[in-house]
Amino acid sequence: MKLVTYKVNSNGRLGIVINNQIYDLSMAAYHNGMRNFPSTMFEYLQDSETLSLYAKTLETKLISGELTMPSEKYDDLLLMAPVPNPTSCRDGYAFRQHVAAARRNRKVEMIEEFDQYPIFILRIIMPFRARAKSGVCPIIFNN
Question: Could you read off the pLDDT of 39-94 as tens digits, one per residue?
C-alpha cells in the first residue's frame, strides 16, 4: 500500500496510489460507508494501526472494482511531503559504527545498552501553543 499527500487547491489530501492513479482515501472511505476517515496524513498517523487495516481493505476493494470512484493520474497531481507540517523531528543519536569507532579509539568496549535503548534527539518544530487544541498538550517520552 502506497500512501501519499497531494495538493488540492492549497490543502494537502491523503491519497492512495493504485496502478498509477491516486484515489482520495477519505472519499474512498466515505463511499464505503465510513464517514470520519482522516483526510490528511497527520490525522491518519494519529491512529495508523487501526486505520491502516481499513485502508488496506479499501485498497483491495478499489483494485477489485468492488468500490468505484473518481481518481487522478499520478503525474497530473502535485505531490507534497508525506507529512507536510510535522510537529517534531527525531534524529537518531549516532550510527553504531561511529560510536563503536569512538569507543575503540578510547580503548573501551562497546556498551550493550546502545542496541537496547535507542536515543533520539527530539526537535520541536511547531510552537507549544500551536499544537495545543484545548489548552492541554501532553508531552510523551518514548523509552
Answer: 999 999 989 899 999 999 999 999 999 999 999 999 999 999 888 877 776 655 56
Cα–Cα dist 68/38, whole Å: 19
Residue 29 neighbours by CB under 8 Å, 6+ apart: 35, 37, 54, 58
* Integer CA distances (angstroms), 131 to 38, 137, 142, in order: 18, 7, 18
pTM of the predicted model as reported, rounded to 2 decimal places: 0.64
CA distance 139 to 121: 15
Grid cell locating 5: 499527500
Which three cell numbers mark 46?
494519529
Residue 52 has, within 13 A of its CA and on its CB side, a CA count of 8
